[in-house]
């Protein structure tokens, strides 16, 4: 709902959801290849190349690149996966969670890399698909560990409560695990990137508008917009890493929750 | 000046999750300050609680653009 809040000034077109639509770069047999897809391809190549080069020629005394790769991977391994799932069961989920983290981080960070300047994860399809993968994995792990009936029973009827509570709790837990979890996992990442990109656009386009087309004192105040853009770029960089971390950690926590026999 | 009333509504709707996220991290910081060795355990719980509270704000901004 678009409403006239004040008298219309000279037209500053505020950035909106339309800025997330890109014309196709090229079309192959009716398949439109757009900028977000290009960023996904580049991000995949960048992550794969980094870890390939870092681990290609491992030495006992690591060089700079090997050290960087080991530190990054070790952080996810030790303080995300093994902490959340436990040292015994967590090992086989390290590759998945680490891939998830670095893939999302690369796509997020492309939002503040010059020229690319678009967080591909703000397109809902990418986080939605990643959330579906996580959803399938934690449900599969739960069913494999506890059996189909046991998994649902443990999830919907956590033991140790008086029975009338279950009338309220069972549908709530069911809804939370199967609908809310994957839904919010995807939406959190997409909307954080969406809102962050929108704020950056607003600051920079607003500053540019004030400088080039503003009247009166506006051109002299445009530095406020640009300063906001610079500060928020650093803030965005932090948020982008944090959101990748949150996605990876929540996936690990959900897997851990499906493994435990009791809540 | 044109604007979108949805965004004002979203601003109001974000107050609740904002308070919730603040309370969760306040409790987490207090917990770590009292018992630093419990940090690993508390971190998972804190992020989980933060994610649940933040989900409300995220649904809010999604709907603000969708409706």
TrEMBL record, chain A:
UniProt keyword annotation of Cytoplasm present: no
Classification via SUPFAM superfamilies: F1F0 ATP synthase subunit A
Keyword Transferase (UniProt): no
Spans traversing the lipid bilayer: 37-55, 93-118, 124-141, 161-180, 186-205, 217-235, 241-259
One Pfam family named in its UniProt record: ATP-synt_A
Taxonomy, superkingdom: Bacteria
InterPro entries xref list: ATP_synth_F0_asu, ATP_synth_F0_asu_bact/mt, F0_ATP_A_sf
Annotated keywords: ATP synthesis, Cell membrane, CF(0), Hydrogen ion transport, Ion transport, Membrane, Transmembrane, Transmembrane helix, Transport
CDD domains, per the entry: ATP-synt_Fo_a_6
Protein's cellular compartments: Cell membrane; Membrane
Membrane topology: Multi-pass membrane protein
Its job: Key component of the proton channel; it plays a direct role in the translocation of protons across the membrane.
Family: Belongs to the ATPase A chain family.
The protein, known as: ATP synthase subunit a
TrEMBL record, chain B:
Transmembrane parts of this sequence: 12-33, 45-66
Pfam family for this entry, one: ATP-synt_C
Residue numbers marked as site, Reversibly protonated during proton transport: 54
Family of the protein in this entry: Belongs to the ATPase C chain family.
Name the UniProt record assigns to this protein: ATP synthase subunit c
Ranges for domain V-ATPase proteolipid subunit C-like: 10-66
Role according to the record: Key component of the F(0) channel; it plays a direct role in translocation across the membrane. A homomeric c-ring of between 10-14 subunits forms the central stalk rotor element with the F(1) delta and epsilon subunits.
The organism of origin for this protein: Cryptosporangium minutisporangium
Keywords per UniProt: ATP synthesis, Cell membrane, CF(0), Hydrogen ion transport, Ion transport, Lipid-binding, Membrane, Transmembrane, Transmembrane helix, Transport
């Amino acid at each position: 709902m678009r409403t006239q809040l004040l008298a219309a000034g000279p037209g500053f077109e505020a950035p909106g959801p339309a800025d997330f639509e890109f014309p196709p770069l090229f079309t192959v047999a009716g398949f439109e290849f757009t900028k977000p897809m290009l960023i996904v391809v580049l991000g995949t190549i960048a992550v794969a190349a980094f870890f390939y080069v870092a681990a290609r020629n491992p030495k006992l005394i690591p060089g700079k690149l090997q050290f960087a790769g080991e530190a990054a991977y070790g952080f996810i391994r030790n303080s995300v996966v093994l902490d959340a799932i436990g040292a015994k069961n967590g090992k086989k989920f390290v590759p998945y969670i680490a891939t998830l983290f670095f893939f999302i981080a690369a796509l997020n960070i492309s939002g503040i890399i010059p020229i690319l300047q678009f967080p591909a994860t703000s397109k809902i399809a990418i986080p939605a698909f990643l959330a579906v993968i996580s959803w399938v994995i934690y449900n599969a792990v739960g069913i494999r560990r506890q059996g189909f009936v046991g998994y649902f029973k443990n999830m919907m009827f956590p033991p140790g409560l008086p029975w009338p509570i279950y009338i309220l709790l069972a549908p709530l837990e069911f809804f939370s695990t199967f609908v809310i979890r994957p839904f919010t996992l995807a939406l959190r990442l997409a909307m954080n990137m969406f809102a962050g990109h929108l704020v950056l656009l607003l600051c920079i386009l607003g500053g540019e508008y004030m400088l080039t087309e503003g009247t009166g004192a506006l051109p002299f105040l445009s530095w406020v917009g640009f300063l906001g853009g610079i500060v928020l770029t650093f803030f965005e960089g932090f948020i982008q890493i944090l959101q990748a971390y949150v996605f990876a950690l929540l996936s690990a926590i959900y897997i851990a929750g499906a493994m435990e026999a009791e809540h | 000046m044109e604007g979108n009333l949805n965004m004002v509504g979203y601003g109001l709707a974000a107050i609740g999750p904002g308070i919730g996220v603040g309370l969760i991290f306040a409790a987490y910081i207090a917990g770590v300050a009292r018992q630093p060795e419990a940090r690993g355990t508390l971190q998972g719980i804190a992020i989980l609680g933060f994610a649940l509270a933040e989900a409300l704000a995220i649904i809010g901004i999604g709907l603000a653009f969708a409706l």
